[in-house]
Design a protein that fits this description.
Length: about 220
């Protein structure tokens, strides 16, 4: 499948992600002749172990995430970041987990927005909010280069596009910037040919970075 970068919005100190920023980012995509193709949605769920025995709880993975992505609606991806483990399951695995009662959802975050076509690129811009809530917690963007599936071969093209994108955003003087951090895929046993598992790992990495950047901003406002 085509190589994808998942970017996240890092607000300036004291600023937050909000609807106005989101709208201006969407306008920037449209200024690049972006054509709307519809809506998209991904969901990340943080799980916690279902046990009353503290000693047994230590045996369960604590940093345990489940991810659904629109590219693979019949699949579900689990990640244990601390141990660099990722595995793919059928989408009905969530029902099985509920019946087994080994883990339950601690919190779920929804990523949703508009998908665009810009030449050979497919872009998705979306807000991050707690599931069943309209409260915006962040902004993400997917940049997918459709002609290539090799991470190494597509890197220069994606870097060049990212430079153009940053220049486009800079004309708006927005309070923040997009950041891309490429995970070390080999730690998860993933190769150069891009797969949906690479996307899931990127989302897990983005979540960790968003949590790390939101906390300092909250301390400043407090």
């Amino acid at each position: 499948m085509p190589v994808k970068w998942v970017l996240h919005w890092v607000p300036s100190v004291g600023a937050t992600a909000n609807t106005q920023v989101m709208n201006e980012i969407s306008q920037c995509v449209e200024s690049l002749n972006g054509v709307k193709e519809g809506k998209w949605k991904s969901i990340i769920t943080f799980y916690k172990p279902m046990t009353r025995e503290p000693a047994m709880a230590a045996e369960f993975a604590r940093d345990f995430l489940g991810i659904s992505i629109p590219d693979q609606p019949k699949k579900y991806y689990f990640i244990i970041r601390g141990q660099r483990i990722i595995f793919e399951a059928d989408s009905n695995i969530e029902l099985i987990m509920d019946k087994l009662q080994s883990y339950k959802s601690r919190v779920s975050l929804t990523f949703e927005g508009i998908q665009y076509q810009v030449g050979d690129f497919q872009l998705r811009v979306g807000k991050v909010s707690p599931t069943h809530s309209e409260s915006m917690r962040g902004i993400v963007m997917e940049v997918e280069y459709l002609p290539l599936s090799s991470i190494d071969k597509s890197r220069q093209v994606l870097e060049d596009f990212f430079d153009i994108w940053k220049d486009t955003l800079s004309k708006r003087s927005l309070p923040g910037q997009f950041l891309h951090i490429e995970p070390n895929y080999t730690e998860y046993g993933l190769l150069d040919q891009y797969t949906s598992q690479h996307t899931a790992v990127q989302y897990a990495t983005v979540m960790a970075q968003m949590i790390a950047t939101v906390q300092p901003n909250q301390q400043v406002r407090n």
